[in-house]
Amino acid sequence: SIAALINGPANFEPFQANPDINTPNEPSSVTSVTAMTDSTYTTPLTSNLQIGDTLYIELVGTDWHNSLTEPALVIMRTTQDPYGIALALIETDSATGIYHGWACVSDTSNDALNHIGAHTDDTLVITSHIDITKTDTVFIGAIGIREHTVRSSKVETCRATIVSSPAFLPTLRHYQIYDITGRTVSPDKLQQGIYYLAKDGRIVSKIIYLR
After folding, report:
1. 15 secondary structure, DSSP code
2. Is 24:64 a contact under the CB 8 Å cutoff?
3. CA nearest neighbour of 26 among 111, 89, 93, 84
């Protein structure tokens, strides 16, 4: 106790109330942490994200002070950034116990800008600061066709490079080749078909490969 730590001619009178009881605070308990599809926060996210996408997060818990609009903190970590960033969610109104916020999936982390760094093939874990057992996981997919977003489209004319010999990737830069399903393929194992060349996670050219 505090009284046991006091030496000398002094008496300690216990606090009459919790000194933090009337100040803003995080929720006293957390029920769930959920990645959401968009800024309406109505539908949980079930598909992969990509570099450059915005991630919306909802935390549900027990409100600390019914008369105040308060924050709730989550920690976001990836394989690229295992230490992660802290993201402050804001209560939708006083006494709701529902907290919303967003972050951007980026090439590198920036805590001040709410950017979480991730690889093009990564796993992002969102953890409540109050209760680390409450988490959600989002997968960062490779560039290509996204889940649940395949739709009919008219044929468009575009520029492409036609090659008929083993593909060559310039050195000293991070180049990757993807097939039309978004899977990474090795340059020396290309079959006849259409591929996309990406540098540093962004598509820079379309390749038509002829054996």
Report:
1. P
2. yes
3. 89
DSSP E strands: which ranges in the chain?
Answer: 29-36, 54-62, 71-77, 85-91, 98-106, 115-117, 122-128, 135-140, 161-163, 175-179, 184-185, 193-199, 202-209
Give how far Cα 40 sits from Cα of 43, 82, 106, 184, 187, Å: 8, 29, 22, 34, 42
Pairing of strands 85-91, 29-36: unpaired
Could you give all domains of the chain from N- to C-terminal order, each with its CATH number?
29-140 (2.60.40.1930), 161-209 (no CATH)
- At residue 176, φ and ψ (nearest 5 deg) are -140, 155
Cα separations in angstroms, 12 against 3, 8, 9, 139: 6, 11, 10, 54
Phi-psi region of 112 (alpha: psi -120 to 50; beta: other; left: phi over 0): alpha
| Tens digit of each residue's pLDDT (9 = 90 or more) over 146-193 | 444 444 444 444 444 555 455 555 554 567 777 766 777 777 766 767
Give the integer Cα–Cα distance in Å for 81 and 79: 5
End-to-end CA distance of the chain: 80
pTM exceeds 0.70? no
Determine the Cα–Cα distance for residues 35 and 89; give it in Å rounded to an integer: 12
